[in-house]
Design brief:
Layout: H1 7-14, H2 25-39, H3 54-57, H4 62-87, H5 94-110
Length: 119
């Protein structure tokens, strides 16, 4: 098969767009906390249960535990994407900061009543 786009152009197309806009202190702090919890081994990127606050979780009904488990898997998927971009050197990109904000806002929405997650 003929190569339609050369490697340099393909690499450029695959590189997330740089974002030089100011970050909220809330998002910066959230990203720092997230990366620290991953580095310290408190969040296992392949165990959703490591995101859940056990003291809160144990008092939930079975139905709410199921919902918490489901949401923890979704959050963990986003965390893996954030970590991948962060470690690949794309800290100042639209994609990374969009995901950080989305993760933070989703967590806040899910925790309207109690601190269910450790992030």
């Amino acid at each position: 098969m003929d190569q339609i786009i050369d490697e340099k152009i393909q690499k450029e197309l695959n590189t997330p767009l740089k974002d030089d806009s100011a970050r909220s202190e809330e998002d910066k702090g959230f990203l720092e906390l997230l990366m620290k919890l991953i580095r310290d081994g408190k969040i296992d990127l392949y165990k959703a249960s490591t995101l859940i606050n056990p003291a809160v979780y144990q008092n939930l009904t079975e139905e709410k535990k199921g919902k918490a488990d489901f949401e923890a898997m979704n959050l963990l998927s986003t965390i893996r994407e954030i970590k991948g971009l962060f470690e690949a050197g794309f800290q100042d990109t639209y994609q990374l900061w969009y995901m950080v904000e989305k993760l933070r806002l989703t967590k806040e929405r899910l925790e309207a009543d109690q601190d269910l997650f450790i992030i």
